[in-house]
Design goal:
By secondary structure, this protein is α+β, with helices and mostly antiparallel strands. The chain has a domain at about 50-150: P-loop containing nucleotide triphosphate hydrolases (Rossmann fold), CATH 3.40.50.300. It has helices spanning about 10-20, 50-70, 85-100, 135-150, and strands spanning about 35, 45, 75, 105, 120-125, 130-135. The radius of gyration is 25 Å and the shape is elongated. The relative contact order is 0.08.
Length: about 150
């Protein structure tokens, strides 16, 4: 538009638009506040949460995205590490519910994620080389029980 031409907004609107920073560029991330009790007065920022609570919030976001825009598979590496037994079971149950539409591959040293799994693999280190073997549920259960009693 040339100076002097008029459009519905005129020169003033064009001048103010060129100086404004687009709204999207004013932000550098996503702010999340959560309440585990459902009480709005108990909302907390992510920085105020424990490691287990942060894990739950991250998993909740991933599971919500999965319900809206599912991926064919998910690879989770020890997502249950910072969770207590009750929350590990809840996560395992959620994965079981969602596995009808996607494949979930998880690594764990805890027994809860084994309950609904279809296959189990053990990684063994022999002669400075890692070997992956398909193992039974019982072998996987023994492995995680050994790890929880020794660590």
């Amino acid at each position: 538009m040339k100076k002097g031409d008029t459009d519905q907004g005129g020169d003033d609107e064009e001048g103010s638009q060129s100086q404004e920073v687009p709204l999207v560029e004013q932000f550098t991330g996503v702010g999340i506040k959560v309440s585990f009790s459902g009480n709005r007065a108990e909302m907390r920022d992510m920085q105020q949460l424990s490691g287990g609570q942060k894990s739950l919030v991250a998993l909740t976001l991933i599971f919500a995205i999965q319900k809206c825009d599912p991926a064919p598979f998910y690879l989770f590496d020890e997502i249950d590490q910072a969770l207590d037994a009750q929350h590990r079971k809840a996560v395992a149950d959620m994965i079981h519910e969602l596995c009808q539409d996607a494949q979930f591959i998880t690594t764990t040293f805890r027994p809860e994620l084994l309950e609904h799994a279809d296959k189990f693999y053990g990684v063994k280190f022999r002669n400075k080389v890692s070997h992956i073997d398909c193992v039974s549920y019982e072998e996987a259960q023994d492995f995680v029980e050994d790890d929880t009693t020794h660590g």
